[in-house]
Structures are given as C-alpha cells and as structure tokens.
C-alpha cells in the first residue's frame, strides 16, 4: 500500500518527531545502535513464542523502523504482546537487542500517547508504576483490581474463584505494605524528573542513497 | 558466609510457598540468610516500559542497600527480580551516561551504588556454592524416581549469561536427579510461560501454558518443577481454564524446586508451603524412602 505522497528519502513531520523520540530512548540501550545491522533473516520471528499472535512480526518491525514507519509500529499490538523472554535477542546472529528495542518503543508510545485502537494494555505498566511509587512494593490484588476495572470489569468476576482460592491458601495478602524508606523512593522520583529536561533532540535524518538501510541517524 | 535475601513482591503473595521452602532449605543446609532490610520492588518488566532511567535508579536502590552489608551476595529467587537486578548491574556498567544519571539520582536520596554486589539465583548458590554432593549427603530421603519436567522459564537464563545455558540449562536436572527424581525429556524447559500476559492477553498466555503442560505430560512428567514464582502460578492456577478452552484434562502438580529439594532434606510439608499449592502433590507421587 504505497503512499503516493511519500517521497523516498524524506520523512513526514510526525514520523520525524517519533523517530527522534525513539532514538532518544534507544540511545540509552547499550548496543541499541546495532539495529542497523539487521539482515532480515527472520530468526527472531521464528524463535518468538507469541509471534503467531502479533500483527507485525519482530522481523517486520525492524524493517518498518528502517523504512521510517514508526507510527505503524506503535499502532500495532506487537510491542505489547512481547513477553520479554529474550529468545530473539539470544539467537539473533547480528546480536541485536531486540527485546530492549521493544522496551524503548513502549516508552516512546507512552510518551507520544500512541496506542492501537481501544487498547488499554499499556495501563498495566502505568498502574504498576503508580502502586510502586506509592508503596515501594507491588500489590498483586490492587494491581489486578485497578487494571480490570479500567480494562474489563467483567473479567474481574472471572477471577473471583481463583482469588478466593489464593486467599484461603494464604497467597494473597489483603493490604499493600509500605516500605519504611518510602521517602527515598520519592526523592529518587523527584530527582529523576528533574533530570529529564527536554534534551536537545537531533532531527532524525534519512541518509540519502541508502534505501531503507541508512536507518539509524 | 552470609547471604542477603531479596524475596521480591511475588514471594510475599502468590509465591509464598517459594519463600517458605527456600528459607527452610537454607536453614537445613546451614546457610545463613538475612533478608535485605527495607528492599523495594525491582520494577519487573513493567517499570522499564514506562521510564528507563527511573526504573534503573529504583532497582539500583536495592543494590545500594545491599552494598552496606559487607560484600555479601544478594540472592534473588524470582526470575524477574533476578534478571532486572542483573540487567541494572550490566546497563550501569556498560553505559557511563546512564551510570552518571543514576548516581546523581541516588545521591539525592542519600544512596550510592558502586556495582559491587553480586546478584545470584538460589539454584546457582545451592549447586555451585554448596554442591550437589554435599546436598545429597545432607538428604534424608530419596525422591523415589519421581518423573518431573524441569521447567526453568526464560528469565533465569536470559538475557544475562549466568550460571547455565540460555536455552538448555541442566543445573536443576542435575540437582534433583542426584536426589533420586527423574527429569523427563523436556525441550520446552526455557520456553516463556507468558508471564504478565495472563493479565493482558490471556488467550495467548493460555496457549503457551497449554503447550508447556502438554510437552511435560506427553513426555511422562508427573509434575512440573519450576524456578520462578510467575511460571509456577501460570502453570498451576489456570489448568481448569486451559482444560475448558482446549478440551484437555490437565491436573498436574506444579512445584518450585526448593519444595522438592526440601522434601528430600526431610522438611515437613508445612515448612515447604506444600499445603498452599493449588494442585496438591499426591503423596503416592513421591514415594520417599530413606
């Protein structure tokens, strides 16, 4: 489905912004720049236990990134279905940090607020972070409760029998416990926020003459 | 030598049998275990999806606290915690930019992290520090040839290259076989169980769980033995749902390895949290004999 308004070698403005945002994230992934070395062998897709359920395969995701189509990636479910099993990363013949790249894409999506339609899956991470920031520890019951209330309240009903079994087996504490040093967590959060000043984002460029493969830069 | 213990949030709730059996096993083997004071959640896979620097800083808080304990190793049983703490060490070591940021952030909280603490998995500690022979000497019962599927899950061996092979580890096989159990052929031993996908994409996760249980039982496994609390709960707690969805008839006990190890060492069922398992381990399955 070629977009006739696209000129080879140039990116639309929104794609440029997303690319910059993503490159910011990927810069902090040690070894993240190796994504340029992908030979499209498909080992990642073949090794991924959940690729069958993805709309864009891992291999295709890298191809799309290099073709300047980050928005299409972020509108797919792929990055959210990844279970972080790292099989792709372990087997990639070019030693590309695929899983960590997907984390960077998740962060880019959260920053840009770009998700697939009617898809509140990213909320789980958000809620987890909120609980952690408040108590210093996670509380499974609270996490599931808050997530299902927003995503699928009826799904909660289905969990009730399991919840009751777990409670009776002593495997589901009722209330979250706050760590004593919660103040240090708050200090960490404040300091981290202060450090995230809007960095000088380099305008992402297409390297002319290297169709698709001059992707990083 | 004392070991610092980092239970992680899961072991305080759904993973309680793991916590109890691990403490029991360490106690019986005479390994001093001290819980890291006021540890915080490692962030698991979730925090990294939201913000990398903060995630690393929060995880590093635990390393900073651990460093105050005279160089003791930090034992983290949950695979997610284990891999996150190792990843934190590695990221901060490999990226001076990240390290500088995290140092500044921790400094504001009065903490400092010198990357001086080694993060270990209890399986690594037991087999490589204590030794399989020493444990066999301490055992009071043999596990009577129990056929089990040794399920490691993914994050204990990936991405950090640690104490075993990233695709075909054998540490747990060796330990439990020396104690009399029988590891069945289980090629899916490091295939992902889906982890948090059970909450976000249950259909996908149930498929993964079904494939794992199928592989385990078709190869003659009468129980599954895990090293991760999330794998344990995913394989144990949803068998009925898997059965309804796929027309299977799974009823497989799923244990953490310290529970089986504890049985061989003579610990009681209660000490090992066996009564908390959702699919009971029928006693005839484990014909313990001296």
CATH architecture of the largest domain in chain A: Orthogonal Bundle
One letter per element, helices H and strands E, the order of chain A comes to: HHHHHHHHHHH
How far apart are the termini of chain A?
26 Å
**CATH class annotation of the largest domain in chain A:** Mainly Alpha
Q: Using the coordinates shown, work out and report the CATH topology of the largest domain in chain B.
A: Rossmann fold
CATH domain fold name of the largest domain in chain A: Fumarate Reductase Iron-sulfur Protein, Chain B, domain 2
Task: Explain this structure.
The complex is a heterodimer of chains A (about 220) and B (about 290). In chain A, about 55% of the residues lie in helices and about 0% in strands. Chain A has about 220 residues and is mainly alpha-helical. Chain A folds into two domains: about 15-110, Fumarate Reductase Iron-sulfur Protein, Chain B, domain 2 (Orthogonal Bundle), CATH 1.10.1060; about 120-195, no CATH class. In chain A, helix 1 (about 15-25) crosses helix 7, helix 8 (about 120-135) runs antiparallel to helix 9 (about 140-150) and helix 9 packs antiparallel against helix 10. Chain A starts with 12 loop residues before the first helix and ends in a 22-residue tail after the last helix. Residues about 200-205 and about 205-215 of chain A have low confidence and may be disordered. Chain B starts with a strand and ends in a 25-residue tail after the last helix. The model of chain B has no long low-confidence stretch (mean pLDDT about 95). Chain B has twelve helices and eight strands. With about 290 residues, chain B is α/β, with parallel strands linked by helices. Chain B is globular, with a radius of gyration of 19 Å. In chain B, about 45% of the residues lie in helices and about 10% in strands. In chain B, the strands form two sheets. Chain B has a four-stranded parallel beta sheet with strand order 2-1-3-4, with helices on both faces. In chain B, strands 6-5-7-8 form a four-stranded parallel beta sheet, sandwiched between helices. In chain B, strand 1 (about 5), helix 1 (about 15-30) and strand 2 form a beta-alpha-beta unit. Chain B has two domains: about 5-120, Glutathione S-transferase Yfyf (Class Pi), Chain A, domain 2, CATH 1.20.1050.140; about 130-285, Rossmann fold (3-Layer(aba) Sandwich), CATH 3.40.50.11810. In chain B, helix 3 packs across helix 5 and helix 4 crosses helix 5 (about 95-110). At the A-B interface, helix 6, helix 7, helix 8, helix 9 and helix 10 of A face helix 2, helix 3, helix 4, helix 5 and helix 8 of B.
């Amino acid at each position: 489905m070629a977009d006739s308004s696209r000129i080879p070698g140039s990116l639309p403005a929104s794609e440029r912004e997303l690319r910059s945002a993503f490159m910011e994230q990927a810069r902090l992934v040690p070894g993240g720049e190796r994504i340029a070395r992908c030979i499209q062998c498909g080992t990642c897709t073949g090794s991924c236990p959940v690729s069958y359920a993805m709309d864009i395969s891992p291999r295709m995701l890298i191809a799309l990134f290099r073709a300047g189509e980050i928005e299409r990636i972020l509108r797919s479910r792929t990055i959210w279905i990844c279970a972080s099993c790292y099989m792709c990363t372990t087997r990639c013949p070019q030693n590309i940090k695929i899983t960590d790249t997907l984390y960077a894409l998740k962060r880019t999506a959260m920053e840009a607020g770009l998700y697939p339609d009617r898809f509140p899956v990213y909320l789980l991470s958000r809620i987890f972070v909120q609980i952690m920031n408040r108590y210093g520890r996670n509380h499974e019951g609270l996490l599931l409760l808050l997530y299902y209330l927003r995503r699928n309240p009826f799904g909660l009903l289905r969990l009730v029998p399991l919840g009751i079994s777990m409670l009776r087996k002593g495997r589901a504490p009722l209330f979250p416990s706050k760590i004593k040093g919660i103040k240090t967590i708050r200090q960490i959060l404040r300091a981290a926020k202060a450090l995230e000043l809007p960095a000088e984002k380099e305008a992402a460029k297409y390297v002319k003459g290297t169709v698709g493969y001059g992707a990083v830069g | 030598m004392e070991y610092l213990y980092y239970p992680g949030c899961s072991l305080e709730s759904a993973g309680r049998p793991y916590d109890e059996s691990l403490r029991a096993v360490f106690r019986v083997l005479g390994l001093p275990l001290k819980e890291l004071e006021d540890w915080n959640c490692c962030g698991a896979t979730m925090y990294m999806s939201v913000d990398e620097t903060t995630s690393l800083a929060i995880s590093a808080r635990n390393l900073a606290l651990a460093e105050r304990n005279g160089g003791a190793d930090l034992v983290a049983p949950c695979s997610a915690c284990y891999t996150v703490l190792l990843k934190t060490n590695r990221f901060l070591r490999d990226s001076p930019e990240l390290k500088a940021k995290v140092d500044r952030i921790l400094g504001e909280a009065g903490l400092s992290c010198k990357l001086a603490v080694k993060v270990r998995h209890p399986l690594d500690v037991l087999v490589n520090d204590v030794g399989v022979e020493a444990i066999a000497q301490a055992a009071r019962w043999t596990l009577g040839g129990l056929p089990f599927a040794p399920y490691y899950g993914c994050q204990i061996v990936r991405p950090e290259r640690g104490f075993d092979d990233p695709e075909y580890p054998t540490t747990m096989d060796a330990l439990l076989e020396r104690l009399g159990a029988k590891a069945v052929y289980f090629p899916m031993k490091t295939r992902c169980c889906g982890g948090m996908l059970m909450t976000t994409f249950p259909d996908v996760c149930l498929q993964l769980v079904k494939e794992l249980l199928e592989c385990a039982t078709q190869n003659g496994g009468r129980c599954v033995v895990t090293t991760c609390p999330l794998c344990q709960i995913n394989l144990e707690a949803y068998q009925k749902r898997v059965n309804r969805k796929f027309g299977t008839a799974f009823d497989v006990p799923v244990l953490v390895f310290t529970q089986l190890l504890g049985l061989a060492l003579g610990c009681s069922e209660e000490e090992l949290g066996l009564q908390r398992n959702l699919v009971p381990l029928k006693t005839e399955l484990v014909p313990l004999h001296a």
